[in-house]
């Protein structure tokens, strides 16, 4: 690990800004391709995060699909505490229509896995340190292209790199750049996250219930004590009111929204609010600076796709940079163009699917709500409709 107070003028092949799950995973993949893993630099700062939390007090749980599990296991970064999902129950509050997605229908051992964001973050960073990657921790790093190099500044230290990947989870679009005029940063929902116990648990089941204010999910918690993770997306006003409730009153509010499928709820932890931003960078490659993961697209958590999509970004990017990593004095433009082309379809499908799922049940238009309920019913009765959706959620599109 390199201390920040140490002035350095090293030139790296690649510098990755942001050592979250996508940045660390990419660093590990590129270190395998580099002539020397130390020529890959990873800058991780906890001083500036999207949700104003340090990793240690980030209580997020993340549903990871099978494709992501294979990648993380291959990187020796599969966390020790994980809960598996074999059945997903999807319903709409106040309307008919529900669908069940079962692992056995797709001949897979599980539909996904739930893990703690903080543990995944730590495990990946530790693996990056062990792989010989040059790790900078401390103040936030900034990247600026300068001719054929990119200057990376962190505190009073400056380094250069041939290519910089921004995996810092931030939205880098500015309204002043005309080419980026599609920039959008919305915050109309808050996700409340907490842990609860239920009186009639269903092991391995995940529930997604669509309400007029946003989706409500109950997932198996990775602590192995039969507890459940609650992810309750609602309006900022409602979130504020719910956060002011005593645990018993909060449990009754959960039951009212979720129904009695799992019996009575007992709240086991403080609930924390995450303002939900959604943004898509229409041009994630600018010269020798590439945005990946949440820096390229920040999605609503409704379909559990944000990190899964980010990991597909970095797996494809590493694949496209394979030859360039061996000769990094060449221009990476062609490799990056191939990467952009390969990622276009998966990004577009996943972003649109997530947008539709996060908004279709919140229109307050009876016809749309009814139609969405019928769609759930159709999904349940017609495997030919359900299979492609479930496959996309389980695997995404990989190249
Ligand atoms: C409530 C909630 C639930 C979610 N559930 C799911 C789910 O079930 N499934 C799923 O796939 N996704 C889910 N997501 C999305 C998922 O959390 C993100 O897609 C994922 O964390 C993105 O990873 P990342 O590495 O790109 O960015 P981040 O996780 O944001 O990591 C970025 C890292 O970079 C560091 N950093 C920031 N700026 C700098 C800088 N200037 N210099 C150096 N370091 C910097 C930050 O401290 C951070 O550690 C959920 C998100 C939320 C909010």
Helices and strands, with pairings:
Elements: E1 11-17, H1 21-33, E2 40-44, E3 61-64, H2 66-74, E4 82-85, E5 87-92, E6 98-102, E7 112-116, H3 117-130, E8 134-137, E9 141-146, E10 149-154, E11 157-166, E12 186-198, E13 205-211, E14 214-220, E15 228-234, H4 236-243, H5 247-258, E16 265-267, E17 272-280, E18 285-286, E19 289-291, E20 297-298, H6 306-320, H7 322-326, H8 333-359, H9 366-381, H10 383-395
Parallel strand pairs: 1-2, 1-11, 2-8, 5-13, 11-19
Antiparallel strand pairs: 3-7, 4-7, 5-6, 9-10, 10-11, 12-15, 12-16, 12-17, 13-14, 14-15, 17-20, 18-19
Helix pairs in contact: 1-3, 1-6, 6-8, 9-10
The structure holds flavin-adenine dinucleotide.
Instruction: Name the CATH superfamily assignment.
Output: FAD/NAD(P)-binding domain
Order of helices and strands: EHEEHEEEEHEEEEEEEEHHEEEEEHHHHH
| First-to-last CA distance | 33 Å
- The number of E-state strands comes to 20
Q: Helix fraction?
A: 25-40%
User: What is the count of helical runs?
Assistant: 10
Integer tally of domains: 1
Q: What is the name of the CATH topology?
A: FAD/NAD(P)-binding domain
Query: What kind of assembly state do the chains in view correspond to?
Result: single chain
So, CATH architecture?
3-Layer(bba) Sandwich
* CATH hierarchy, class: Alpha Beta
Query: Structural class, judged by helices and strands?
Result: alpha+beta
Shape: globular
Binned strand content: 25-35%
Provide the residue-averaged pLDDT. Answer: 86
Largest sheet: 9 strands, mixed
Return residue spans where pLDDT drops below 50 for at least 5 consecutive residues: 1-6, 175-184
Q: Using only CA atoms, what is the Rg?
A: 21 Å
Hetero groups bound?
A: flavin-adenine dinucleotide
